[in-house]
């Protein structure tokens, strides 16, 4: 049997067997992104004749116009369904049509782009003496070709021509010299094995075992629900035809539902934040899967399959999938409550939307040490009702009775929802019983009424021994009769006719102090919210600038954030407790600062008409995952509380992308010089130790870290916030850094040694740090044209220069380390009545 006859027979058989799968893939490609289903591109065939190769499109439309000719590692042009098709090599299936046309063979050298054929030597051009193949020997030996590129390669095409292409051609030439029918059949089976087995890696399986377990459960549930729906329809009495339906339906479910579940993002959500978004995703996944299964059953000749079974199956499956996630969320909540045995009972006086949101938040967050116990409200129509499962226990005069029946540790009074006379009664009762209380302005009052509530001022004035400014007030004493509310320093608040403000939370921090200066240099008016937890020196030289306004306050304080966002067009959110060790000091502080404050920020921005929000996240969300170079679409594997709160905050904000422009910037590990200096970051730490102690101690050393200079990080925020077109950044996540700055810890130590040659490097066994990840920064480079200007050596020289100039005198000063400073000084209390803590400026 000739090679051509074998090609025709097997290609025809393959198309006959896979045509339902081809239709499903075509539909998914069309639904996933705009553009044609098939990708056609010129390749060089037998004897140098060009032809058009066919593939399922796996990239965005016109991808060749948006970036380089070659696909790069974690290429942002690849679509969601395209990633799956490439992973399983299903995008190559249309090439069976090329085989039938005679352009290709089933087995042979892979066809090359004419651009690269120009670089073939006369000897290498011998590979063109045979038809190119769907399966090739070089393809089997190098399934993960992209992983062969160094992480710091700048020119993919040049590296491909100089290093990868010669190896591929050498393998293909050996095939041309000795190919035969038996060898081709062996290569076909080897190609199938490599495609199936090479798609899974042991480390990937370990890192994603929980998601895979949930996928397995969902698949099993799909089968069980389908059989349950069939049993209910046929009353468990099956004839031979029904058994055939069940067998085909079960097979289709196993083939169709799992990839659709993955495609619809069912395994990217966090159980602790189940809501309408997750429910809609489940509904979409189930509906799409049911349509595909029903359509394929019809195409296979099972048109008489009961439609009612599909309807029952879809409705029941939505309930099972969402119900199972609710059960897991409840289990996690109970586990969190067992870990926290000192939750404080909260009673809320006044019932409205603000009260309902408070209860929902307290009930959902394990890390908060507060648990809602009930409401009091004088409206008779609200007696006996429940809000998110929490009952209205009576009216205000019943406070003493309710407090006697069960312990009450905190009373929240909604102002002005509660009448002034009732507020006085509640406050007097709380003071007499030494119960902590707080006056909570309703969101409606803050947005429409005066910025400072008269009831709050009256109560504060009556409190004996009150000291220090309230949150949101300026330093330097109280507010005079004519002073503006809100504690702003610097420029006075402009009129609405002036250019809108850019709000920077954490503007006195390590990155924030650079962001503020860069915005000012571009002529923007900048408002800063910062608690000065680590001091105000990050902004000292710009406080008198006419374009700067500073609010010293807490991003968890509703009144502060409402005032801060007035007349604001863009928000750059940098404020957070930063760093794994610092976040581990106090769970409550970390959760409230890094997660709950983000919820508040999202709501305030939405109601205040903010147009764009840029949020500072971290590449540490990728965690322990060094075998791959990760991009923005990679699965996340956080190994610290800090990284977990960044992921949760990202999810909170991205849910608002339809209301205003939200962009997430995941920063690499930042280094370099700043007015709010930090020496607890990898490059800066090694540099300071080398300068003052002439040695660097490296734990492990093989762990990968992405890095970015603080100036480049600040430039990325300004680019996205003030210059990038909204269409390019809305709802997007960008890694911020450079591929060439992915370095191991040991590499960084040697770079420091290169700048300070007398440095000794001490290697020690790695302890206590599971972070190990490499990151691709191709997306921000291709989409926004962002390229960092500073190398790691530049940052090392900066820090060395500051040490030599005496600007840094003692590297052990707690001021240079977030965790050391907080251990030395603690989290400051604002007042005996209010337990909230000022947040750290973003480091």
Please explain how this structure is put together:
The protein folds into four domains: 197 residues, no CATH class; 132 residues, no CATH class; 120 residues, NAD(P)-binding Rossmann-like Domain (Rossmann fold); 338 residues, Rossmann fold. Strand 12, helix 19 and strand 13 form a beta-alpha-beta unit. The longest helix has 33 residues. It starts with a helix and ends in an 18-residue tail after the last helix. It has 843 residues and is α/β, with parallel strands linked by helices. The radius of gyration is 31 Å and the shape is globular. The strands form eight sheets. An eight-stranded mixed beta sheet has the order 11-14-13-12-15-16-18-23, sandwiched between helices. Helices cover 46% and strands 15% of the residues.
Outline of the structure:
This protein is α/β, with parallel strands linked by helices. It contains 30 helices and 26 strands.
Tally of distinct domains: 4
The CATH C-level name of the largest domain is Alpha Beta
End-to-end separation in angstroms reads: 71 Å
Number of helices: 30
What structural class should be given to the helix and strand makeup? alpha/beta
Q: Give the low-pLDDT segments.
A: 450-497, 830-843
Our Rg estimate from Cα atoms comes to 31 Å
Helical content class: 40-55%
Give the neighbour order of strands across the main sheet: 11-14-13-12-15-16-18-23
Largest sheet: 8 strands, mixed
The CATH architecture of the largest domain can be named as 3-Layer(aba) Sandwich
Mean pLDDT: 81
Outline, from the CA principal axes? globular
Name of the CATH homologous superfamily of the largest domain: NAD(P)-binding Rossmann-like Domain
Question: What fold name stands as the CATH topology of the largest domain?
Answer: Rossmann fold
Strand content: 15-25%
